[in-house]
Specification:
Number of strands: 10
Shape: elongated
InterPro entries: TMEM181, TMEM181_GOLD
Structural class: alpha+beta
Low-confidence stretches: 1-6
Protein name: Transmembrane protein 181
Pfam families: TMEM181_GOLD (PF21885)
Order of helices and strands: HHHEEEEEEEEEHE
Keywords: Membrane, Transmembrane, Transmembrane helix
Number of helices: 4
Distance between the termini: 110 Å
Helix content: 25-40%
Mean pLDDT: 77
Length: 224
């Protein structure tokens, strides 16, 4: 239909959806702006933070070098003290002095060296040597029983591990020719006394002693 003679024209509403989308986005933007005032920091929020000047990166080159020199000096001093200071673990040696018939059985009684308050653990290690001249290697299983008493300031014995409790452990004696491997006899994880009296007995080495003849028995007391 031609409406030019009537003085008006008719247009299809092609932009109606675009206008609605623009209005919706505008309303969402206004809502987000209102909500953003509560979550975004305002000028008065960071006024105190901006008044504190960060000087982390304002160090001069000389100060930067001095910091590194001081760090490496402290590190080198700690390494030197660790190397030149007393060892962490100290070991003392005690020979077993018994009659010939008791060499394979004991009892072997020993008193530990003085333990400092910094000592935390104690090991007792045994090492045997024989008179065997053969080239054979041999492995002998036997029992080890240990009793431990703590010595107080009045020099009285306080039982810590009585012999009656039956503290027996199986150990294997591995030897080649005249030398035998070391074996752990006892270990204390908590030290409450300055001195300890330790008694060790062997069970089952009689036949081994008759065949190979135990020549020497040494105990090593190691403290950490």
């Amino acid at each position: 239909m031609d409406n030019s003679g009537l003085g008006y024209s008719y247009h299809l509403p092609s932009a109606g959806w675009n206008l609605k989308i623009k209005n919706t986005l505008s309303q969402f933007s206004d809502l987000f702006s209102e909500f953003n005032k509560y979550i975004a920091p305002a000028y008065h929020h960071d006024r105190c933070e901006r008044s504190v000047q960060m000087r982390l990166y304002s160090m001069h080159k000389r100060e930067f070098v001095m910091v590194f020199v001081g760090f490496f000096a402290c590190f080198g001093l700690s390494v030197f003290i660790g190397l030149a200071g007393p060892p962490i673990t100290t070991t003392s040696e005690q020979k077993a002095h018994v009659n010939g018939n008791e060499t394979a059985t004991g009892p072997f009684v020993m008193k530990t060296p003085a333990l400092s308050p910094y000592s935390q653990q104690l090991w007792v290690i045994a090492k045997l040597s024989t008179l065997n001249n053969d080239d054979e290697r041999y492995d002998k299983g036997f029992q080890v029983s240990v009793s431990i008493d703590g010595i107080d300031i009045d020099h009285k014995l306080n039982p810590i591990l009585p012999l009656e409790t039956g503290h027996n452990r199986t150990r294997h004696l591995k030897c080649e020719r005249q030398s035998c491997e070391e074996l752990v006899v006892a270990h204390l994880g908590f030290l409450d006394y300055t001195y300890y009296m330790i008694t060790v007995r062997f069970h089952g080495l009689e036949s081994f002693h008759q065949r190979y003849t135990i020549r020497d028995l040494t105990f090593y007391v190691s403290k950490h």
